[in-house]
Amino acid sequence: MKSINPNDFKVVNPIELSKLPTNLDIGASDDKKEDKLENVSSKLSDLQDVMYAHNRYGVLICLQGMDTSGKDSLIREVFKGFNSRGVVVHSFKTPNSAELEHDYLWRHYLALPEKGKFTIFNRTHYENVLVTRVHPEYILNENLPGIATVADINPEFWDNRMEQIRNFEKHITQNGVIVLKFFLHLSKEEQRQRLLRRLEEGKHNWKFSTGDLKEREHWDEYMQHYEEAINNTSTEKAPCMLFPLMIRKWPVIL
């Protein structure tokens, strides 16, 4: 099996997503990958016990990626060995009426991990500089001062949001939250094949949504905004890890 160094995937300099690979073959059989994944899951479970006893740090794992990039599968496979009382998964959807009465980071603060525990954000606070950039009309639902129309949302607005996200992550890391951010890099062609499989394989039909097709039409916009968000918010204390998909069982690289 090809040796993998996670630091090779850490974003420390500006990146261009179009120039980065979306797949990686580590030269191992599925059985070997499965064994490695089991070892990783076991080590994480042991680490969870140590962190719980230490009671000083919490871990926030942020997963971002286009539809079908494998976020749910990663969570299921990598964290299946955890004590269920020590890990919480939050999947952030469209803000509800109560959440819209607060600033956009409020609901993310509420979901942060307790000391000694792990929290996984399946889609994250980065949706506020991703989907809202593709669909800026969503910002109007926040009833922000000075924002009456989409025309009021200028580049400075987005620069401020990037700074706010950096400050959010700086604040929580200084108060005992270890932040690990993962972008699951998927090609448009691979997404097409995965969407088709959801239609063709009966057991996966429930995963298919016409909304996925509508968002796929904005692929280039999403890639542009993902790239900008990664480049603006990957820091020493809250690094972004950009992983190409492996040929099946890819989570062994974690």
TrEMBL record:
Domain Polyphosphate kinase-2-related: 29-242
Keyword presence, Kinase: yes
Matches recorded under PANTHER family: POLYPHOSPHATE:AMP PHOSPHOTRANSFERASE, POLYPHOSPHATE:AMP PHOSPHOTRANSFERASE-RELATED
Key words, A-Z: Kinase, Transferase
Gene Ontology MF terms in the entry: polyphosphate kinase activity
UniProt keyword annotation of Protein biosynthesis present: no
InterPro entries: P-loop_NTPase (IPR027417), Polyphosphate_phosphotransfera (IPR016898), PPK2-rel_1 (IPR022300), PPK2-related (IPR022488)
Organism superkingdom: Bacteria
Family, similarity comment: Belongs to the polyphosphate kinase 2 (PPK2) family. Class I subfamily.
Name of this protein: Polyphosphate:nucleotide phosphotransferase, PPK2 family
Annotated GO biological process: polyphosphate metabolic process
SUPFAM superfamilies: P-loop containing nucleoside triphosphate hydrolases
A Pfam family annotated for this UniProt entry: PPK2
Taxonomic lineage from the root: Bacteria, Pseudomonadati, Bacteroidota, Flavobacteriia, Flavobacteriales
NCBIfam families from the UniProt entry: PPK2_rel_1
